[in-house]
Write a structure and sequence with these properties.
The complex is a heterodimer.
Chain A (H helix, E strand, L loop, with lengths): L2 H16 L2 H7 L3 E5 L5 E4 L1 H7 L3 H4 L10 H16 L4 E2 L6 E4 L5 E12 L8 E9 L2 H23 L2 E6 L4 E4 L1 H6 L7 E3 H6 L3 H14 L7 E10 L4 E14 L2 E11 L1 H56 L5 H30 L6 E3 L1 H14 L6 E6 L6 E3 L1 H21 L6 E8 L5 E8 L27 H11 L4 E3 L8 E7 L3
Parallel strand pairs in A: 14-16
Antiparallel strand pairs in A: 1-2, 1-6, 3-5, 4-5, 5-6, 7-8, 7-12, 8-9, 10-11, 11-12, 13-15, 16-17, 17-19, 18-19
Helix pairs in contact in A: 10-11, 12-13, 13-14
Chain B lengths: L6 E5 L3 H12 L4 E5 L2 H7 L6 E6 L7 H9 L7 E5 L4 H9 L4 E4 L4 H33 L3 H11 L4 H8 L3 H15 L4 H10 L1
Parallel strand pairs in B: 1-2, 1-3, 3-4, 4-5
Helix pairs in contact in B: 6-8, 7-8
Classes of the chains: A alpha+beta, B alpha/beta.
Chain lengths: 513, 201
Amino acid sequence: MSRENLTAEQSRSALIDSIHFEELFDAVVDAMLLVDSSGHIVHANPAALRLFGYAHEEICGQVVENFMPDRFRKHHRQHRKRFNAEPRKRPMGNSCELMVLNRHGEEIAVNISLCPVTAKEQDHGQVCVLVTFIVLDRRRQAECALRESEERLWLVKQAANAGIFDIDCVNGRVYCDDRMRELWWEQADEIMTLEHFFAAIHPNDRTKCRKVFNEAVNPDEEGKCRSEFRVLRLSDHSERWIATLGQTQFENGLASRIVGIARDITERKTLELTLQQQRNETETLFNQQVAILTAVAVAHELNSPLTAISAYSEVAQRALSVSPVDHDKVREAFDGCFKQAQHAGKKLYELIGFLQGREVETEAVNLNRVVEDTLLQVRSDGYDAYHLTLDLEPDLPAVKANRVQIQRVMVNLIRNAVEAMRAADITDSEITIAVKTLGSENTAMVTIVDNGPGVDPEAISRIFEPFFTTKPTGFGMGLSISRALIETNGGQLWVDPDFRQGAQFHFTLPFAS
Amino acid sequence: MTPEDFTVYIVDDDAAVRRSLMLMIEQEAIAVKVFDSAEAFLEHYRSQLKGCIIADIHMPGMDGLQLQEILGTRACTMPIIFLTGYGTIPQSVRAIKAGAVDFLTKPITRAKLIACIRSAFAECEKLMQTNQHNRNVQSLLSKLTEREREILEWVVQGLSNKEIASHLGISHRTVEIHRSHIMQKSGATNLLELAQLVNEN
């Protein structure tokens, strides 16, 4: 170090020495406390006095724990000991928001930093702590948080590609954001009437959506607004599948507002429909194979006896046509025919017995539950675009049946109904399922009604025959199998021939007791 | 058309089918023997047997197709008529490729069955004649000397006596003598017949 530098250094140090510590301490804008190693306050600057609301003489000599909420005091003593063992400059509480207590018992949020200060040797080199408080600005913080939260919300909305709707239930108006209007094929305004909002929904789905809406505004329900439906562009009939998820706000027991999001689920729906179609095709193919194999098995059992009967018959014919008649041959041939015909019959019964397998296992079944399970299944199969009315008899006694077979029959009947209504392009398709006790008999009856085209009167006598179908891709086994299953369970399955507003199927099952 | 020693061999595991077909065929004055399995038939089989075989394609144990395969390796001249049920098309294709003469779908009619048997007998007879003819040719050619056989090769290739003579380094006259011996022994009247004989062998 050069001579000049040394002089400058000395003079700077002399200048710093000459400035009184207290003056410097008091001039700092942030609140500061000087605390000794036992935790007693040695000095407080005016900013600190303002923060805590005490006079200098009131605050000095007190332990620091007196200026924090009761719940932190005990822990703080331990923290203080740890700090003394290893004093170093650091923020207190890992930069978290901390609380101090002012004279009026109010809690003030602050950040605190700690810095060890060593006293001069004449004061025994005691280590004190310089505590600096930075008061947090609550309002700015709140604004910040709001901005961040809004940003987060916006990002989520972008990520989900969701539109937002806000329905004013009192005035029947709907607010839509940009994305929502896009989802509505630009057929929506920022604010529009509820009618206008519903007009864009596919006619076949409108009834269902209104039902969801009515449930959502019903104060006795949970106010959930969850639905999947198609939105139609009127100009070219383009369709888009939408899923909505909303929540109703209630005021004085009345729905005031529904806020929710809508997402485009066309891709998923298309995939689901494709899968459904594939499943149906596979099922048809499988059924066909089963039928073919069954027919082959029957043919196999019958072939040999038929061959013998046919040959014996021709042998008898020939034996009768020669002169003299060969009576022994005729007798043997007819005997052979008779035995082979009996043999063929026996083989057939054996085969049917084998195909039917063991006895059907039945149990006490709650029919109402089976109806609910069936509805879950048909819904997951993609058969859900209809208005459903359930008319279940509460406390219906259990029936004695095989649950799987009964569910199979119900699925089949509902699918038939949906397919018939779809094929006929019924806009407000409806299915009613009723379960009740049949008169005074010991029997339960299930009725499934649709408002489709109904069963053709000319076909009605044949619909339960195997391989009879009116569907272009049908296999014609559904109803005949269903009837066989119900009969196996001790019930009956029939169609009401006089019902004209659609198709009405009934089946019965005996009660368990 | 039906030589007396021609027989129909029925191989079927169903007793009633065997018996009824047997009665039917016997009414046509055709000899019939029945076997309840392919194994039982093979035990009885000799290559001299004449006639045809009617076999069910489906049988427990050895089936009709396996029987056909084994007979193919045992110089069988008898054609096989297969009895089939439904849904046996793949097997039928295999059987045709292996040379089956006919298929009859159960149940069968007398008219079809007898027509099949008659054409199978005809086929069997033709096969046996061809075999006989082949055996004859073979014995004729075996009478030739080594030199004559050597010259025969050249002759059927269309070489002249002169060319053969110069190839073998013998006189044209010697070739001529050998050649007349060949014609004598084989019984052929001209070169074309001679060439046919050699080809058939």
